[in-house]
Design goal:
The complex is a heterodimer of chains A (about 290) and B (about 280). Chain A is about 75% helix and about 0% strand. Chain A contains 14 helices and 2 strands. The longest helix of chain A has about 30 residues. Chain A has 2 domains: about 60 residues, no CATH class; about 230 residues, MetI-like fold, CATH 1.10.3720.10. In chain A, helix 2 packs across helix 14. In chain B, helix 3 crosses helix 7 and helix 8 packs across helix 9. The N and C termini of chain B lie far apart (about 50 Å). The chains are: A mainly alpha (about 290), B mainly alpha (about 280).
Chain lengths: ~290, ~280
């Protein structure tokens, strides 16, 4: 007993914490800090990974500035978010409000809403491809039976990105329903009782009591959906390959293509660097706005 | 009068919930039915084919090494999860229960790196893999995910909640720090272990962009990667049933795990608000 203590004090004690955190330190240097600097360094070079690197100054940046396809990809991502975020909030909150009543089978509903959350995006995308197909898609057939003409969910250039946004909303909804449900359960019931005595309508109760109380959850959903939307990749990769007319090309898909189809390592690093800064700025602005409103 | 109003309200409530549940479940049930359907029946909306059979799965197994990719994915997810649990608890323990120079800085670095978008490190990390000659090896799929800032923060928080007396008593008994972490403290933070394990496993299992980048050899591919390349590669174009069979096999392991541990899954994800 005493020997263990002795050894502990005189050999390892000072170094031990560093030994314990060393895997993390090694990891963060190799896979986070070095890559950030290396990425910045690459932005000034032209490199196809095989032949030697070639310093080109700011040419990658001017190319980015004039790259219509990249800005189109950013625009597509923004269109995606414009539908995805409000739809996610309204739909998840409505379902959570329904689940918040005294109901039977709560766990059945929770489980069924949650399945798309845990299943791979690859599965969800393959499934929705069958739902949204033009000629043989299940949705168009259903519409056909109701006498409505086929809709080009994925082939109509103006529609495709919104179809993908609906799919992404569907996939993540189960998680946000649970988050909203937790939020709704924190609202004390006395508030509603007091409001009822004062003669407040359902809508007034929702607007003046529920909404302010679940504000933190709403902002969490906004930030998580924003980050998710900016990472959009596998859905267009499988479903549309970025088409039609590049209308579903996401920024990550474009970076991937520049790097691994055309082997423009310097340029794709520039795109990644710029895009990451953009994401951090947007998320930071959202957080500032939240702090201000609270 | 009032009771009929309540009744109508109930019908509306359950009606809406059941429609929602169907909209989430129907595609998956349809998918399982379609995977057993012969070619001419796949596009039907019915839930179960008239002439079910295994032919889609048979031709899938003949076309791509799907069984092998299942083993690959399982092995990678298990090894990654174990490493994240170990590295997460040692680092989290040091940050929570030890005083040393640089502790605060390391904590801030962890918090900062968590908010760093992956798009910035994607290309350089691929180049690192090329230079370390790890492309087309399992190491490329495990090492970049073997340490997780999120796991470290979870463990740090869990260990902070444990009394110092527990550690002091173990030291008095002559335990070294490894025994303290894995034998004495781990049994006391089971919820955190479960949460980190589930989220890491699901994240590893569902990861597809990184394998697409670092693995080119079909024999080493993970399951989502192989299914993705099969779905977009044109090899499945003529046979929709085979593609859907691939999706079923990819979905099944996670769905089975979910049905057994659904409470843990939902609690883990809801408590952290993370998807992957």
């Amino acid at each position: 007993m005493a020997r263990g203590k002795f050894r502990f004090r005189f050999t390892g004690k000072k170094m031990l914490p560093y030994l314990l955190v060393s895997p993390y330190l090694l990891f963060v240097i190799v896979f986070v800090l070095f890559p950030v600097f290396f990425c910045f360094f690459l932005t000034f070079n032209k490199w196809n990974i095989i032949s030697p690197m070639h310093f080109i100054g700011l040419r990658n940046y001017s190319r980015l500035w004039h790259d219509r396809l990249f800005w189109k990809a950013i625009g597509n991502t923004l269109k995606f978010l414009l539908l995805h975020i409000p739809l996610q909030i309204v739909a998840s909150l409505s379902l959570a409000a329904l689940l918040n009543r005294k109901i039977r089978g709560l766990s059945f509903f929770r489980v069924s809403f949650f399945i798309p959350v845990i299943v791979s995006g690859v599965v969800v995308t393959i499934l929705w491809q069958q739902m949204l197909g033009y000629d043989a898609g299940l949705l168009n057939r259903l519409l056909g039976k109701l006498g409505i003409r086929q809709i080009g969910w994925l082939v109509n250039p103006d529609l495709a990105i919104y179809s993908i946004a609906v799919m992404a909303t569907w996939k993540n909804m189960g998680l946000y329903v649970i988050l909203f449900l937790i939020g709704l359960q924190t609202v004390p019931t006395q508030y509603y009782e007091a409001a009822k005595l004062e003669g407040a309508t359902r809508w007034q109760q929702f607007y003046h009591i529920t909404l302010p109380m679940i504000n933190p959850t709403i902002f969490m959903v906004v930030i998580l959906s924003t980050i998710g939307g900016f990472s959009l990749f596998i859905e267009p990769y499988i479903m549309t390959g970025g088409g039609p007319l590049n209308q579903t090309l996401s920024a990550v898909l474009y970076i991937y293509k520049q790097a691994f189809q055309y082997y423009n390592m310097g340029y794709s690093a520039t795109l990644g660097f710029f895009y990451a800064l953009m994401i951090m700025t947007v998320v930071l602005l959202q957080k500032k706005l939240i702090e201000k409103e609270n | 009068m009032k009771s009929t109003k309540i009744l109508i309200g109930r019908i509306f409530l359950y009606g809406a919930l059941i429609i929602a549940a169907i909209s989430f479940l129907y595609p998956f049930v349809w998918m399982i039915g379609a995977s057993f359907a012969p070619t001419h029946e796949v596009g039907k909306m019915t839930l179960w084919p008239m002439h079910p059979g295994w032919q889609n799965f048979v031709s899938l197994v003949n076309k791509i090494p799907i069984g092998r990719s299942l083993v690959n994915s399982l092995a990678i997810a298990i090894v990654t999860t174990s490493l994240v649990l170990v590295t997460g608890s040692t680092t989290g323990y040091a940050l929570a229960k030890m005083r040393f120079k640089g502790r605060q800085i390391i904590f801030y670095v962890i918090v900062f790196t968590m908010s760093l978008p992956f798009q910035i490190t994607l290309i350089p990390n691929y180049i690192t893999m090329v230079n370390l000659r790890l492309v087309d090896s399992f190491f490329a799929l495990v090492i970049p995910f073997a340490v997780s800032a999120f796991a470290i923060l979870m463990f740090r928080q869990a260990f902070q909640g444990l009394p110092q007396a527990l550690i002091d008593a173990a030291r008095m008994d002559g335990c070294n720090e490894w025994t303290i972490i894995f034998r004495i403290l781990w049994p006391n933070i089971k919820p955190t272990l479960v949460t980190v394990a589930i989220l890491t496993f699901i994240g590893s299992w569902n990861e597809v962009l990184w394998p697409l980048i670092v693995i080119r050899n079909e024999k080493l591919m993970t399951m989502p990667q192989l299914v993705t390349l099969f779905a977009v590669g044109g090899r499945a174009d003529s046979q929709l049933g085979v593609k859907i069979a691939a999706a079923v096999l990819l979905a099944l392991p996670v769905m089975i795990a979910f049905l057994f541990f659904q409470r843990h899954f939902i609690q883990s994800m809801a408590s952290t608000g993370l998807k992957d």
